[in-house]
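Chapter review: from sequence to fold.
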Amino acid sequence: PAVSREGAFLLQNLLLVGVIAVVLWGTILPLVSGMLGTERVVDAAYYQRAAGPLFVALLALIAAGPLLPWRHVGAPVLKALRWPAASALIAFIALGRDVMAMAIGLAVGGIATVVLEYGRALRRKPALLLMKRRRYGAYLAHAGVLVVAIGIAASQMGQQEKDVTLRPGQSVNLAGYSLTYTGSRQQDLGDHTEFIAAMRFGGTTLQPSRATYAGLGGQALTHVAISTTPLADVYVVLAGTNADGSASFRVLLNPLVTWIWAGGVILILGVVLGNVGERETAPELARRRVPITLPA
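The token string follows.
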């Protein structure tokens, strides 16, 4: 049946094949088009338009898949899906009703499914988590994949940047984060001159720098200052300094990058939980003698 766990597995495989086909075509298109005369190159928008809907559908199946039974879907399963669906809808509305909100909402719905299954086990018999550790380890790994998906969706579609020129004491605000420029200094290090700026960000000071090599025709090398928080990574690039003490910066915000690493840790913990300890012994098949008649 199409609406069953078997159908979900089949559709997931087809969607993965579609994603691979999209990525493969985007990769070989410059080579193929170059052989035909005019080289064409795709940008990030191609992958977002072509692979984005496939990933959204894949997340929906991952969210609902663990609750689907084998062979057919009945009323109890549809009733159980209401909590993941409600979680996904709330996240979608709260995050802005765009493509990123849809992807994160579906991942939140999938995590709600895992929480629901763990909650059922704890209510019935907590020892089930160890007795059926393969099942619940798979659920935990499932949640890790969804956390990674949230991190990828947010970091790819929620990036923000701003170019500013600040005087000492002035601040720049980006997505609720405030950075204050406190000044800059110059260091002569023999083969190059380095300008180091100071940006106060919360309780820390970021120091982006820019080194200029006179012996190489004035070529410059920038050092990006990075601050990592649980919700976002903040990058500050020093574009240049001016004689009046002001400096030009590019400030970038990459949300939920740490969630990608956290999801990987959760995934590993799920694999470990599902494989530690003794394996469950399969019940022996009962043997039954069936009388047969041999030809004479």
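Two observations follow directly from the output. The beta strands are 160-166, 171-174, 177-188, 193-201, 204-206, 209-213, 219-223, 225-228, 232-241, 247-255. The CA atoms of residues 134 and 292 lie 42 Å apart.
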